[in-house]
Amino acid sequence: MALMQIAEPGESTAPHQHRLAVGIDLGTTNSLVATVKSGAAEVLLNHDSQPLLPSVVRYLKDQTVVGAEAKAAQAIDPQNTIVSVKRFMGRGIADVAKYGALPYKFIDAPGMVKIETTAGVKSPVDVSADILRVLRIQAEEALAGELVGAVITVPAYFDDAQRQATKDAANIAGINVLRLLNEPTAAAIAYGLDNESKGTFAVFDLGGGTFDISILKLTKGVFEVLATNGDSSLGGDDFDQAIGAHWRKQLGLASADHGDTRRLLMKAREVKEMLTTQVNAESTLKLSYGQEFKLRLSQDEFWAMTQALVQRSLQPVKKALRDAKLGVADIDGIVMVGGATRMLHVQRAVTEFFGKPTLNNLDPDKVVALGAAIQANALAGNRTGEDLLLLDVIPLSLGLETMGGLAEKVIPRNSTIPIARAQEFTTYKDGQTAMAIHVVQGERELVKDCRSLAKFELRGIPPMVAGAARIQVTFQVDADGLLSVAARETVSGVSTQIEVKPSYGLSDNEIAEMLKASFSHAKDDADARVLSEEKVDAVRLIEAVQAAIKRDGDTLLDTAERAEILAAIAALTPMIETADARTIKAQVAELSRTTENFAARRMDRSVADALKGKRVEDMQSL
Ligand code: ADP
Ligand code: MG
């Protein structure tokens, strides 16, 4: 018997200890866990000896069932069997309503929806944690040891709330998150694209219910996400639906029974998957009341009835290329991800679109987990040499509200993360001791058209004249895409800061809508900005003139001059609310003109005051 080395807990058995780390693809339809063994990434099999764990959780009174068994119960216990929970992560009730009729009892909770089940109220974070816990235990059993941590993948478009929700779920499941990694980046790593010297890659990910396209650029081993786009309601499920609808019509099926519909769709899926390797497929459908139907479909029929779905996936691809300012010829490689990219007509359409063959020699439904495993292995310190530093982008600009309801962008959209940007602001009023900081997200010029992320106040600014305080606001987005904002008055050093965890997230559709609105409103927005700036100027000037009159009006103004200035103010004041930018600007100029002489006399006097009492000798050095 060989002697085993034993170390105290916490003590290292260095130099060659391998630290157990895994990559987890927490998918909408399927989840899986992978690790690097003897230098190669591999997916760990679950209790059913399957690589894929269906992302389905069924809650019974005193038991939680996860995976294939839960999925099988979907038709008989829809209310307590949660599928595609990923779509609810970090989302409010209004977002979830957009998915159409779902069999769950949703509860409108602050921040994120919750679901009422026989086992009590569950949040999407709890449900995801239940899936992750199964994967963790599976990994610990397979690897016979405790994990130091995991890299968990998320869609590139996931926002702060969705990323934070994913991290929270991992914590509940007892997993130390080494970092979150964007799914397309993970896929690129699995293909070893990070070893190339440089290149631009498209990652085409068609999963069960969602489609994502990402354009990645690699320079010196560093990935940058140039653009992302997608369709949150396009996936393999839609192909099942198309087949199901076809059979219903063909066979004159009228059953509205929920269970029968499920059974029909399961058959559709089975046949769809068969048609990637054979030209004809058939199966048998048994309905709830015992009736049986023979189901048949040929590859040609299937391709014809779903050609429109395939074409639909190319629209976001075009948009992403446009956003990245690239043409198809600029793409060096196309990575196929997601089980639905196994379909031959999908592969053909993508190959034709890019005019070159796709990378598809790894299992498309495993590639994300494999890449995550490679990254986890590197982060756990098992890899010698240079570690990967991966860059991603933020999908929408982040900024602050400034005077007049304007949005000032601090970090523009598509900036690579991690990133920190600081911008200086100043006070607007004399003696102002507090400043409200409103963090917004979006591309539009006016705050009311952007999304509010957080509000906080910087207090204790020493009283100074307007414009003298120097308030530095720093935005920091970490490698996981989480934002924190800090504000500091640099003269006095008072500071405050906030972690921004928006109450709930935006869907990719909403992001697309916000972007579209910013393009279509570009002219209106620019006009609105000019108007708002003129208004701010007008208010500022009136306040300054009134303050000057109060201080020096009695001694430096004659009656006629004072009357002229007051008339100019009286004319300008109502304009601020009602007039257009040009009118306001003209009257601001007029008010400035009436105060020119007064301002000059105030200037002379303050110079004289400054010189008063000084001796001739002192003055020579001035
Ligand atoms: P997700 O990323 O949403 O978790 P997956 O990448 O696991 O999803 O993809 C699931 C989808 O892939 C399902 O719609 C499934 O039917 C489809 N799929 C899996 N294998 C095949 C196949 N051989 N042919 C066609 N579609 C397939
Ligand atoms: Mg996936």
Which structural class best describes the helix and strand composition? alpha+beta
User: Mean pLDDT, as a whole number?
Assistant: 85
Query: What is the alpha-carbon Rg in Å?
Result: 31 Å
CATH architecture identity of the largest domain: 2-Layer Sandwich
Unreliable spans: 1-16, 385-389, 614-622
Give structural notes.
This protein is of the alpha+beta class and 622 residues long. The protein folds into four domains: 21-234 and 315-391, Nucleotidyltransferase, domain 5, CATH 3.30.420; 236-306, Actin, Chain A, domain 4 (Alpha-Beta Complex), CATH 3.90.640.10; 398-510, Substrate Binding Domain Of DNAk, Chain A, domain 1, CATH 2.60.34.10; 523-607, Substrate Binding Domain Of Dnak, Chain:A, Domain 2 (Up-down Bundle). It contains 15 helices and 28 strands. The strands form eight sheets. Strands 1, 2, 3, 4, 11 and 12 form a six-stranded mixed beta sheet that branches. Strands 15-14-13-18 form a four-stranded mixed beta sheet. A four-stranded antiparallel beta sheet has the order 21-20-24-25, with no helix packed on it. Strand 16 (280-286) and strand 17 (292-298) form a beta hairpin. Helix 6 crosses helix 7 (258-274) and helix 6 packs antiparallel against helix 8. The longest helix has 35 residues, at 522-556. The protein starts with 20 loop residues before the first strand and ends with a helix. The model is unreliable at 1-16, 385-389 and 614-622 (pLDDT under 50). Bound molecules: adenosine-5'-diphosphate and magnesium ion. Adenosine-5'-diphosphate binds at residues 27-30, 207-209, 235-237, 269, 272-273, 276, 338-340, 342-343, 365.
